[in-house]
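Lab manual, section 2.4: Encoding a predicted structure.

Procedure: take the sequence of the chain (183 residues), apply the prediction step described in section 2.3, and record the output as structure tokens. A sample record is shown.
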Amino acid sequence: MKITLCGRIGSGKSVIAKALAKDLNLKHYSTGDLMRELAKERGYKIEEFMKIRPDDIDHQVDSRTKKIGEEEDNFIFDSKLAFHFIENAIKIFLDVTYEEAAKRIFNAQRTTEAPASSPEELAVRNKERWEVDRKKYQKLYNVDIDDQNNYDIFIETTGKPLDEVIQEVKRAILSLSEKQENN
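Recorded output:
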């Protein structure tokens, strides 16, 4: 089983991907972790790095993503673009309002994020960051990460407890995998 999990910043995709990997006994991959590591190695916070990163970084990450999709099975890939590079995957998108996402991130006090004085400031930065990525992927690959037609499953996480979202995603995955097996 191949699963790609895309979602807005703060939608819970990383936590959900890790939980699903454990529950479904799948390997977990995350381009977010890789990009944070690359940013840190170069002395940047993730927001700064995402604005200035060279295109070859994207191509390196995307090439590796595609290779994993071609050579491996039984994984979940937490990534904004894995749906585009991995064929025959169950493709999931997790949505959340920028305001709720900012509250989640602000309350979690992620050390990989640049400090914010308020959730409102963080919401603005997250929206800007999403748009930078969205435009970059449209330019590089002619793909819109906001287009719901790219995904098999689209789940709104705003106002939902994490456990509820995990169960909803799990049910959707199992339902889709059963349909694929029956076809």
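Check your result against the sample. Strands lie at 2-7, 27-30, 75-78, 90-95, 153-156.
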